[in-house]
Design brief:
Layout lengths: L4 H19 L3 H5 L2 E8 L7 E2 L3 H8 L2 E17 L2 E14 L4 E15 L2 E10 L17
Parallel strand pairs: 1-6
Antiparallel strand pairs: 1-2, 3-4, 4-5, 5-6
Length: 144
């Protein structure tokens, strides 16, 4: 794969800026890099959604007391022409409005395309593994 270092750094900056916006609960900045038709395979139901949803994002942000802990690790980016894939292991944590303290590791994959010189997210997949022992419990206790 022919990976252009400028493109890789632009995508890395996009991912980090989005992570910062999540930490700060800034809906507009968190959703800015997504195309209007982004396909989301997210943690919360339904199985898929299309397009950023500012109301749903704000509602999720509102379930946290104070800032959200959002940490991107193991970010790997591959670029070919105007398409790119990025994947990482991310931690989401903090204190919920119920007082519960949360820290969960998730897997994230982004599909991006360069439009008019700017990288935009056209696909996002965030998931946690589940136990294959018949319980089907989400494995939210895993750590890298």
């Amino acid at each position: 794969m022919n990976t252009n270092s400028n493109d890789v750094e632009e995508i890395r900056a996009l991912v980090e800026a989005t992570s910062a916006a999540i930490r700060e609960k800034d809906v507009e900045r968190a959703l800015e890099p997504y195309t209007p038709d982004t396909l989301f395979y997210d943690l919360a139901p339904p199985l898929r959604t299309e397009g950023p949803d500012p109301e749903a994002t704000k509602a999720w942000f509102d379930t946290w007391n104070g800032p959200i802990e959002h940490e991107v690790t193991e970010l790997d980016i591959a670029v070919e022409g105007n398409l790119a894939l990025a994947h990482s292991i991310n931690r989401i944590g903090g204190t919920k409005t119920t007082g519960e303290k949360v820290s969960t590791w998730v897997r994230m994959t982004l599909g991006l395309r360069k439009e008019k010189g700017t990288w935009r997210v056209m696909h996002e997949h965030v998931s946690v593994p589940f136990h294959m022992d018949g319980s089907y419990r989400a494995a939210v206790d895993l750590e890298p």
